[in-house]
């Protein structure tokens, strides 16, 4: 099955690795105890895990699961050094430089918000952005607690240069699905062997998708899913960790 190499490919393209970048473990949803660096190329450690800040937000676009944080953190210092305001239009990212502006689109209902990254997080596994209460409310995700989103870096001073927003399910776009990517292989036979190995451990359903990552390079991605919802994805990810399978990435296509 051919696919456009989408958000799940981000780490695999660079390395042709057997397995993709590891998800964080499942610590409590908490901000870092001290401000994290804002500059690209720097790194910081939270709950024993090192995170690397991207050198630039230019052309950043990623799909994944968004969460939000509210009253428990209201008034506490963010990684940028300013107090968190749950009623502001801000967000936390593990990897985007502080001060980056992003457009966040709810892929299920089409609602959009523009927020400034001024904090670090979320440090719960399988989430790509933590939104303020107000931003989450405008996306319609307060009740569910999470949403399937696309995050795109934008320039608030030059909107004409911004990328177009994604086509969401509410307006004729495809229904977003959650997958867990467990491997990327340069050889189809190796991908099938790894798929069979995971099946013997009771994991599934699984698919193998191929994607072009260069002029003459095809990768074969082994993915669990599609999964029914965020809770199902979290349960499968936790089960994989219990089984000792640490290298996987939860994403949305």
Would you give an account of this structure?
With 253 residues, this protein is α+β, with helices and mostly antiparallel strands. It folds into two domains: 31-171, RlpA-like domain (Barwin-like endoglucanases, Beta Barrel), CATH 2.40.40.10; 178-252, Sporulation related repeat (Alpha-Beta Plaits), CATH 3.30.70.1070. Helix content is 15%, strand content 30%. It has four helices and twelve strands, in the order αβββββββαββαββαβ. The protein has helices at residues 10-15, 133-139, 188-200, 230-242; strands spanning 43-46, 49-52, 61-68, 90-92, 101-106, 112-119, 129-131, 147-154, 178-185, 206-214, 217-227, 249-252. The chain has a six-stranded mixed beta barrel with strand order 3-7-4-6-5-8. Strands 10-11-9-12 form a four-stranded antiparallel β-sheet. It starts with 9 loop residues before the first helix and ends with a strand. 39% of the residues are buried. The model is unreliable at 1-37 (pLDDT under 50).
Topology overview:
Elements: H1 10-15, E1 43-46, E2 49-52, E3 61-68, E4 90-92, E5 101-106, E6 112-119, E7 129-131, H2 133-139, E8 147-154, E9 178-185, H3 188-200, E10 206-214, E11 217-227, H4 230-242, E12 249-252
Parallel strand pairs: 3-7, 4-6
Antiparallel strand pairs: 1-2, 3-8, 4-7, 5-6, 5-8, 9-11, 9-12, 10-11
């Amino acid at each position: 099955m051919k696919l456009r190499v989408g958000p799940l490919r981000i780490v695999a393209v660079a390395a042709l690795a057997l397995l993709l970048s590891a998800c964080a473990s499942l610590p409590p949803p908490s901000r870092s105890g001290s401000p994290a660096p804002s500059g690209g190329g720097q790194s910081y450690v939270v709950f024993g895990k090192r995170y690397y800040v991207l050198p630039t937000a230019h052309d950043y676009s990623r799909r994944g699961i968004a969460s939000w944080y509210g009253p428990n953190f209201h008034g506490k210092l963010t990684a940028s050094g300013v107090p968190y305001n749950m009623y502001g239009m801000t967000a936390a990212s593990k990897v985007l430089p502080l001060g980056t502006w992003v457009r966040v689109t709810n892929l299920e209902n089409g609602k959009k918000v523009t927020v400034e990254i001024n904090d670090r997080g979320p440090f719960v596994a399988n989430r790509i952005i933590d939104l303020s209460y107000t931003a989450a409310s405008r996306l319609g995700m307060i009740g569910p607690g999470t949403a399937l989103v696309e995050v795109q870096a934008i320039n608030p001073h030059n909107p004409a240069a911004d990328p177009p927003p994604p086509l969401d399910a509410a307006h004729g776009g495809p229904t977003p699905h959650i997958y867990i990517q467990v491997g990327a292989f340069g050889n189809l036979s190796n991908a099938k062997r790894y798929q069979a190995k995971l099946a013997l451990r009771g994991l599934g359903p699984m698919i193998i998708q191929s994607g072009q990552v260069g002029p003459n390079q095809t990768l074969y991605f082994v993915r669990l899913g599609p999964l029914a919802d965020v809770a199902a994805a979290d349960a499968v990810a936790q089960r994989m960790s219990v089984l000792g399978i640490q290298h996987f990435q939860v994403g949305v296509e």
